[in-house]
Amino acid sequence: MDKTVLPSDKSIEDRISQLPDEMLISVLSLLMPKEAFRTSVLSHRWKCLCPFLPRSLDFDGLYTMWEIERGKKSLQFERKKFLQWVNDTLKSCRVSTIDEFRVCFQFDDGSKSHVDGWIDFAISKGVKRLELDFTATDPFKDASNFYRFPNERFTSDKTCIKSLTSLTLKYIRVTGELLEHFLSNCPLLERLHVDNSEDLVNLNICGSSLKLKYLHIIRCLKFKSIEINAPNLESFGYVGKKIKLHVHSAPHLLDVRIGSMYAFGSLSSYLYQLKSLSLAVHSYTYEGVKFPEFRTLTKLKHLKVTVDASEGSSLLGLIPLIEAAPFLHKFVFELILWEINFPKKARKVKKYPNEHLKEVEIVGFAGRAIDIQLVVYLLESAINLEKIIVNLCAPYVVGIPCPRNIRTTAEYKGAREAAMRLKENNLQELSLL
């Protein structure tokens, strides 16, 4: 048997440390901040380089938050440790500019002095993409205690942040006045995403010089109205209660995400030019999902529909929407199913050949009459279908590091068996997740 002879310690040559500083920094900059700084133990030379590494600072605590929610870790202890990690990293950072600054962890106004300092740091370094995701693990957490963005730091002196191209704020109290200030004083701002802001009430997006391409306002419960006159806007999303929505001008709008049917009226003159449409609807009655009539969506290529539905309801009301898009390429359907039963009757529907639909994804498949009917329709009408993905997980746990067990063993087994029966019907392209 061959024996591997290891070189002695004296014969080991550290060729990596002999590389030029520029090359070492380039390699280490591909790592997460925590990982990059851990490499400083390798040599004194590497330790000297680390402060100059990060052009992108991404402090991601998503996995830790799920551990906290599951009761495996303490929020108070982990928050203190997270604060220390961010503060220590920023103290040792010597770069003159950064491209991205992102923090994902649960913070509230109790950590305001720390977070205010982080924002000042990011702005002073000419940050391009700023994201503060303070998503609460407790959905019933008092929103009045959410971190309040320091409006006075920006609106009082009309600060012009020339470098900022993207701003994402989640579970943060921010006013419409401040957002409008950013739009007016950040000439390169192209992306604005606000999620769960207690202070956002009204917003006016207006200006011929606006670079804004992406605008999403999600679940801001006190939001009342928005005016849009944005010549470069390509993607618009709104999920929340009914508001006054006025889209005066959005000639380049291609992608829309809406969480209520009423928004169709305000966007009706732009639907024909869309390439991507995502919408959420409710179906708690026997009649099921219904859509208003609208003109043919000749440019629509991607359609995503999320439905909150009862078991006895019907999803066949989605068919007119699917057939209104003759060139639809991909259809994603997400089902959140509630156990409310109605008398079941056989429903018949005319099937028109769909020549362009290539890919279908069903998320939250339950294997009940409500979703089996829709899947059968798609299989029979999409004559050139290449792939169908059936995901048994509920939509709101897909992508979560530690998904909760939201289905009983019997429910999961029943859904899987129903999906396998579909696959047995000469459906070789079905992928089961």
Secondary-structure map with pairings?
Layout: H1 21-28, H2 33-38, H3 44-49, E1 56-60, H4 62-69, H5 75-92, E2 100-104, H6 112-124, E3 129-133, E4 147-148, H7 152-155, E5 166-170, E6 172-173, H8 176-185, E7 191-195, E8 202-206, E9 214-218, E10 225-229, E11 235-239, E12 244-249, E13 255-258, H9 263-267, E14 276-283, E15 302-310, H10 319-323, E16 330-338, E17 359-363, H11 369-381, E18 387-391, H12 409-424, E19 430-432
Parallel strand pairs: 1-2, 2-3, 3-5, 4-6, 5-7, 7-9, 8-10, 9-11, 10-12, 11-13, 13-14, 14-15, 15-16, 16-17, 17-18, 18-19
Can you walk me through this structure?
By secondary structure, the chain is an alpha/beta fold. The chain has two domains: 55-200, no CATH class; 275-432, no CATH class. Helix content is 26%, strand content 23%. It has helices spanning 21-28, 33-38, 44-49, 62-69, 75-92, 112-124, 152-155, 176-185, 263-267, 319-323, 369-381, 409-424; strands spanning 56-60, 100-104, 129-133, 147-148, 166-170, 172-173, 191-195, 202-206, 214-218, 225-229, 235-239, 244-249, 255-258, 276-283, 302-310, 330-338, 359-363, 387-391, 430-432. It has a 14-stranded parallel beta sheet with strand order 1-2-3-5-7-9-11-13-14-15-16-17-18-19, covered by helices on one side. Strands 8-10-12 form a three-stranded parallel beta sheet. A two-stranded parallel sheet has the order 4-6. Helix 9 links the parallel strand 13 and strand 14. The longest helix is centred in the first third of the chain and has 18 residues, at 75-92. The two termini are 45 Å apart. The model has no long low-confidence stretch (mean pLDDT 81). It comes from Quercus lobata (Valley oak). This is F-box domain-containing protein. It holds the Pfam family F-box. Residues 13-49 form the F-box domain.
